[in-house]
Structures
1.
Amino acid sequence: MKKAILVIVAIMLVASIVGCSKAETKTDANVVKFGVFEPLTGANAAGGAEELDGVRLAQELYPTVTVGGKEYKIELAIADNKSDKVEAANAGQRLVDSDKVQVVLGSWGSGLSMAAGPVFKDAKIPAIGLSCTNPLVTKDNPFYFRVCFLDPFQGTVMANYAFKDVKARKAVIIREVSNDYSVGLAKFFADSFKSLTGDQGAILAELNYNTNDQDFSAQLTQVKSLKPDVIFAPGNYTESALIIKQARELGITAPFLGGDTWEIAEFINVGKQAVEGAVMSAFFDNDAPLTPLSKVFVESYQKKYGKLPSGTAVLGFDGYLLAIDAIKRADSVDPLKIRDAIAATKDFAGAAGYVTLDANGDPIKSAVIKEVKGGKFVFKTTVAP
Amino acid sequence: MELSTFFQQLTNALSLGSLYALIAIGYTMVYGILRLINFAHGDVFMLGAYFAFYAATSLAMPWWVAFIVAIGLTAIFGMGLERVAYRPLRDSPKISVMISAIGASFLIENVGIVVFGGRPKSFPSIPLFDTVLHLGPVSVLSVSLFIPVITAAILVALLWIVNGTKTGLAMRAVSTDLDAARLMAIDVNRTISLTFGIGSLLAGLGGIMWTMKYPQLNPLMGVMPGLKCFIAAVIGGIGNIPGAVLGGFLLGVLEIMIVAFLPELTGYRDAFAFVLLIVVLLVKPSGLLGKHQAVKV
């Protein structure tokens, strides 16, 4: 018995040494590794899947990058952060330690990005946020960048819409209290809406719920008694769809407004008839090309996946391209040099518009407003910053 | 608070509570007979919902056929789970079985993620359950009226099975002393299998009813309801079937009332349920209706 254990231990030791040397040889071949840091399971899974689709499409179209006359193959290391902040930090650590990636792309969900931000910062690996819109993602983190607009802008856009288009004067906010994105966006909306109406009491109530909650009847019964003109409910698409469904069941007729996280097929699948008329801000519209690449993206996406792109897939595509662009400009696969090149990004043409990063690592981009009509996300208007 | 709002909140509370009660019954039944906390109960609940979903969508069965098929499959799955994960450990310490149950729970969740995918699915709408009824100022989804009726029917049926049939007598005998039961020529394996079958059937039914009310499926959907219903079962006195119903209603009412009367504490709604569990375990570990049992050593 003892002997058997010794033999097993010996085999494991040998295996681990062989395993290590294998990993070493793998990295110094002509390969550059992009870590994809996304929620592929849990509450945000559909969001992560869309971005991964966008990244994969970009990889198919642009599988290599040339640095110093040498062609590097791009490999994706995919880490599932499980829609969970604790798991997110672990997944980030795994990308950095065992996958040894040069660049990280992701994540859908600002809270998840914020949880892993310090990991990337400590490891000095640049990360490109795809659709994480909370200002804190890139703030004080010289290694986190992004290719999407920010929540202060998004909150203002939706407050303007509520004030001018819905002609609302009293609003109720329902926010996902454990989600940094939702709490942040709710605050920016509230600030903007109060100043538009000139009424400090314009927000009748801010009600909370938790990620993964399924029953919102108690909160919504309160909303009903407050009789708001509009309800702003930024949050994850699944909970939001259930909220709207349950609100309609309770007889609440006020329109629902939300943020970029709503534009995903599951929002309509779960909410069905109830989410008709829901209005949200979004990043991109398939029929409103912003750069020559927009058409390339929409057409090749349709060819690869057999459906029209929606939601944040386009940002996955752009994040990947920005990483390649930065590697080319740095003419190096050294993460620090890639970081500096990303930081210096100016007028980069992605599929979802031009990206020029400011000192924080944030771009200024326009937002699109969409409405659910006939079971589809229908373009309403574009709002320039 | 206006009276109409109060009645609406009360309706919300009862409809959530009856759902908890329905799932808690299965939990408590398995514990009552086997002294095993089946931590995979929530995941069997999830499977029931997925089985119904695939039967109704991919196999295009009418909803009621899909429900029966799904409930049957869930029951068979539960018996299989007992055969594979619990029976081999029957003579081991209780803690081993419990750890095996936790392992089974994670296994089912993760296989679920691989097989069903992490993206949530949505149950097709069934008009019978998905109609909004207005009773005066109170609005209620029709499924919320069915659930308490189903819960009550199951409560009566189970009490009859356990206390009024020969099989129930065998279950009680197994619960009191497994070896003595075997000596009395009771087919212990069959009795335990049957207990798991019924427990899982209830989990499957609970899962289907849950998705009728909250029409969204994902492989981790059973985790929170599983824990909540465990709490409900403990509040009522784990092992006691009417206790589980009482505990389920109590938990539902308390959760809704916290949000209704103390909105600023909404974020702590789940935490509150767990605090309640701790308090019950400290103050009255046998639960509201449970009897204190001396354990032979």
2.
Amino acid sequence: MMTDLTNLTVAQIRDGFRAGDFSAREVAEAFNANVAAAKALNAFIVETPEHALAAADQADKDRAAGALKPLSGVPIGMKDLFCTDGVQTTAASHMLEGFTPTYESTVSQKLWDAGAGMLGKLNLDQFAMGSSNETSYFGNVVSPWRRNDGSNAALAPGGSSGGSSAAIAARLCPAATGTDTGGSIRQPAAFTGISGIKPTYGRCSRWGIIAFASSLDQAGPMAQDVRDCAILLENMAGYDPKDSTSLARPVPAWEAGLSSDLKGKKIGVPKEYRVEGLDADVARVWDDGIAWLKDAGAEIVEVSLPHSKYALPAYYIIAPAEASSNLARYDGVRYGLRDLPDGANLQDMYAATRAAGFGPEVKRRIIIGTYVLSAGFYDAYYTQAQKVRTLIAQDFAKAFEACDVILAPTAPSAAFALGENVDDPLKMYLNDVFAVPASLAGLPAMSVPGGLSKDGLPLGLQIIGPAFDEQSVLNTGLALEERAGFTARPDKWW
Amino acid sequence: MLARAPMSVDLTTVKKIASLARLAVSEDEAQALVPELNGILHWVEQLGEVDVTGVEPMTAVIPNTLRLRDDVVTDGNVRDKVLANAPQAEHGFFAVPKVIE
């Protein structure tokens, strides 16, 4: 028996397939088998083994014909927020249960055009609203990780891209797509010991991604390591005339540009992130990260992001406001659920449909968003939040005059148990306290594994870069990865 | 500014907002939402501390020029695709309950 193909990275699959070490079909079959055997994780809403096999067979033909594509032979998971032609797309909601798009999102189309195959549609927090994957209509995703204290407590895989993070950590797919509105790629990556990058706002087209908060939503890859993130991102990014906020800039060759030599680079450490009561494990891993980057040749400088503490409250005005507007489209008329009580008129149908189709967290955010946008409150809440957002972006711009990238924790703690935070929305929102500022400023940011907590759970290190400079973010991530030596894996129990 | 905004919502307000959002809520749901919303609103009101004198509200997170395209039809003739996911479609249209004003 050769190497277990499901332990390979995207780069190893790509290169091994090209070298003729194995066929694409063997790879797809191995991952399909892992997916089929992992129902206990509930990472997938829909499994598409036939899609993965068809792409693999095409890749095998292309290899024979000498017509390899960048991702030939690589199967991936697709977050169920990306519309996929002919395959149910739900945003993990009852509202869109059974919705089968007649078109393909730009990002997923680019991945298929690059030769990738789809293993299935990955579970997530409903409409990407959540930090634990507990708001999905299709049930919780369970992290493959467990604490080392012998307890079998089911842990959160993070959210909203919790199906993506759990599936990669459990080797159900070598990589997956995620989306990040306020940390939804980075926090789940941190919770599960994998890597993930949210690029600069506008790098990846939002066309065909079910909208949450349009000024924040951004797609990005999640994978086992930094190189794989670079490979995937190159095949997801690019100008799209169908998204008016898409960046009309060439896509850099991020993989070819990878270098962990940080001589001459300055790393900013934001003093406001070292909050009182910071978790001791999180602080230790952050200090380790600082030492590793010094070792890589970088100079460490303290920077100040004075409005950091206002980022989360600003986010919880802006994101619900945009969500309340975006989710107004679910009216029971054009697609999705319709609930038509006997004798109901049109207005009753709207209200009944939306009551039945949205979960509690989605309703909570729609109501907050509707309130802060309502007559008399708009300036006090929404305009004020957008002004604070300007100040947060200016804080970063000033910090990047003194440093090349910023190093911070990804999340304030390791994974928590499912159920632990569900009764307290504010406590749940605090998970994204370190992730949200970069989202509000539209900046590229990634999480890489930094070490383990005393409970044996992964902790992430976050790198934030200036707009358009994903390369510096990836290179800093690579320098951390080489020194962290993070090889821990969850014991298979599922 | 925030300091002058009302600091709390009551049951009547929650029901009004839910109605504006076209969300049917039961009495129990509405009552449960009152303290939840007040908790969140009280928390976001700390933004009122920030001095925003002379600060413009953000309109575009990454400076980007809105593009114009040629004023030509680039898609269409996909009626059946548009209607494919409709809960109820009749005679090539979306069907809704009778509307009588």
